[in-house]
Write a structure and sequence with these properties.
Oligomer: heterodimer
Radius of gyration of chain A: 23 Å
Strand content of chain A: under 5%
Number of domains of chain B: 1
Strand order of the largest sheet of chain A: 1-2
Structural class of chain A: mainly alpha
Strand content of chain B: under 5%
Number of strands of chain B: 0
Order of helices and strands of chain B: HHHHHHHHHHHH
Order of helices and strands of chain A: HHHHHHHEEHHHHHHH
CATH class of chain B: Mainly Alpha
Shape of chain A: elongated
Largest interface: A-B, 46 and 55 residues
Largest sheet of chain B: none
CATH architecture of chain B: Orthogonal Bundle
């Protein structure tokens, strides 16, 4: 099996122009990819212009309804225990959840890509140490670590009103923590791809004409793992949204910038499920499930395009 | 050869445990609010008293190696200090009292999920494209995308507050005097149903997806084709040729999954007020009870590492080809 595959891989041209457009078309050609991407576009719109759709975020002061009202024509999704409109909160929650997810994904993928390429390309003891650390994060119940780290970072940095990318400082701790605790699977995938790439002829050719290690990593290895990084980022994003939701749910969110998880935490604190106030948590819950499902669907479609051998599986 | 593999995995697990202990040590030393800093806030405390306190607790010695060695010694003796909140109670006692409910809930949940989830997944993969596959896979994907606590809240809404069939929180009815042991078992049993259903359903989603793709993978193997070419019946191929091979990756993935189950444990117990380790974690987090958090982190970390090690060893026994 090894001999013919190696030959094929050698013959395969490396990065071509216009390949990414073709890649997107292939992903969209799959039903899962198309549906998933459509759902994500809808949520992206909600996240970008929440004010245009439902007005500014309501607070306890600017609340417009009665306490814990069931849905009416004025409040399509009812109100919470201080009278805030649930539709307003849920749409605004989209922005917080998505921005935290996006930032956390960027950090995770950056760390994972960097560590994966360096570990695979440099090899030796550095590789051993980095992979041992990544094993540690893979095996560990990272969620408990994330809990402790979040409250710790918050106590050290403080939770002032400062903002980064429109996200209050206390929530940035969650971004950092998700980044720290979830890079290892990305690093693993990128490393194994790098290991096979560095044995290819074009890397030898680059070295022969005098390219340095940094140049080879940046110009020859990186472009060839970008597809994998994108595919992985989609799944990382879903995981980041779930982790943020869970952390906020158990009380590490920010009540002044409610994400979906924070809304669920408020619903839990108010005892919404026990009171039968379904409108309090089902909208935010549905959003979470839809977003995670959409990312999984797009991820499946991308996986399908990248690994045609397994195409029969779906 | 086999012994070398086992030795290597054991060493790896030990290294990971040492890392966990090290992280646990450093992490909590970095936490704000050490005893001397709290003392230093009080203007009536003389510098000398602070110095004496530092000496008494060994805080004047370097972090590594002195403080670390002291910490290692205490950890080896299972001495994790005292809870900040439950004053006078050692951490081991606080954690120990919460272990039972968690083990009960997740032991039973895992058992149900493994049996049901693997069965559904195997059947869906075997009859790919059939009704069970479409419906089962759809439901599994939704369950897989849903945080455990959300599932718990929905079940609570339906079965407790709408249908009034089951109690909504805790492990038993508060203040109730039981007429007999049977009544007590019945009461706890009723409280047990919803959390158990949440845990099982959440896990069934994951395990059936996993088992389905494992079975589909083995369907493409040469020995499956051979078995079919020999004229074996479908059921026989599934039972004797596909399942034993498909179960192998499933076992490992279930073990790897344990780390994630921990996150689910914390939130499910929070939703149902189940008096286990998960709720203890949230309580300790909210009250900044760091010694307890430290103990929980160590306990969970080491258990997950050991579970993974056990899965790897079982795997290597079942499949002699495995050499990591």
């Amino acid at each position: 099996m090894t001999a013919p595959t190696a030959g094929l891989e050698l013959a395969r041209p490396r990065v071509r122009r216009g390949r990414s457009a073709g890649f997107l078309r292939q992903v969209l050609a799959r039903r899962t990819g198309l549906i998933g991407l459509l759902i994500l576009v809808v949520f992206a719109v909600l996240a970008i212009v929440p004010d245009l759709l439902v007005g500014p975020l309501q607070t306890a002061v600017s609340a417009t309804g009665g306490r814990l009202q069931a849905p009416t024509a004025a409040h399509l999704l009812g109100t919470d225990e201080v009278g805030r409109d649930m539709l307003n909160l849920t749409v605004h929650g989209t922005r917080i959840a998505m921005v935290i997810g996006l930032l956390a994904t960027v950090i995770t993928v950056f760390l994972g890509g960097l560590i994966g390429v360096i570990s695979g390309y440099v090899g030796g003891w550095l590789d051993t140490i980095l992979m041992r650390i990544s094993d540690f994060f893979l095996v560990l119940p990272t969620f408990v670590l994330a809990l402790i780290l979040t409250s710790m970072i918050r106590e050290i940095l403080g939770t002032g009103a400062r903002e980064i990318f429109g996200i209050r400082f206390g929530l940035i701790a969650i971004v950092i923590v998700i980044g720290i605790t979830s890079w290892s699977s990305t690093a693993r995938i990128i490393r194994s791809q790098t290991l096979s790439l560095k044995e290819r002829a074009f890397v030898d050719r680059a070295r022969v004409i005098g390219a340095g290690n940094l140049h080879i990593m940046a110009r020859h290895i990186l472009p060839n793992v970008v597809n994998l990084i994108v595919a992985n980022a989609v799944l990382v994003f879903a995981g980041a949204v779930l982790t943020e939701t869970t952390l906020s749910f158990i009380g590490l969110g920010d009540p002044f910038q409610p994400s979906w998880g924070q809304i669920l935490n408020a619903a839990e604190t108010a005892g919404a499920a026990g009171l039968g106030a379904w409108w309090y948590f089902l909208p935010a819950g549905t959003c979470i499930v839809l977003v995670v499902l959409a990312f999984t669907m797009v991820g499946t479609a991308i996986d399908d395009v990248l690994n045609p051998r397994q195409r029969s599986r779906r | 050869m086999g012994n070398r593999f086992i030795a290597r995995r054991v060493v790896q697990a030990l290294v990971t445990i040492v890392l966990i202990v090290l992280v646990n040590f450093l992490l909590f030393r970095a936490m704000p609010g050490s005893p001397e800093r709290i003392l230093a806030r009080n203007p009536n405390v003389t510098p000398r008293a602070i110095e004496e306190t530092r000496e008494r607790w060994g805080l004047n010695k370097p972090l590594i190696p002195d403080q670390f060695i002291a910490y290692l010694g205490a950890t080896a003796r299972a001495d994790f200090g005292f809870s900040f909140v439950a004053r006078g109670h050692p951490v081991t006692e606080v954690i120990g009292s919460r272990l039972g409910p968690t083990l009960l809930l997740f032991g039973a949940g895992e058992l149900i999920a493994i049996v049901v989830g693997l069965a559904i997944g195997a059947y869906a993969g075997w009859r790919r494209g059939g009704v069970v596959d479409y419906v089962g896979n759809g439901i599994s994907l939704v369950l897989y995308s849903m945080p455990y606590f959300l599932l718990g809240m929905i079940l609570l809404l339906v079965f407790s507050s709408t249908l009034h069939l089951l109690p909504s929180f805790g492990m038993s009815t508060p203040g109730l005097r039981y007429g007999s042991a049977f009544d007590q078992v019945k009461d706890i049993g009723l409280h047990f149903i919803l959390p158990l259903a949440t845990v099982s359903l959440g896990l069934i989603g994951q395990y059936s997806i996993l088992m389905r793709s494992a079975v589909i993978d083995t369907l493409g193997e040469d020995y499956a084709t051979t078995a079919r070419a020999k004229g074996l019946t479908g059921g026989r191929i599934l039972r004797h040729h596909l399942l034993p091979n498909a179960l192998l990756p499933a076992v490992t993935l279930i073990a790897i999954n344990l780390g994630y189950v921990v996150a689910g444990a914390i939130t499910v117990e929070y939703v149902f007020n189940w008096p286990g380790l998960g709720r203890l974690t949230v309580e300790a987090l909210n009250s900044r009870d760091y010694p307890v958090l430290q103990g929980i982190f160590l306990l969970l970390g080491v258990s997950v590492v050991l579970a993974n090690l056990a899965a790897d060893l079982v795997y290597s026994l079942l499949d002699p080809r495995v050499r990591l």
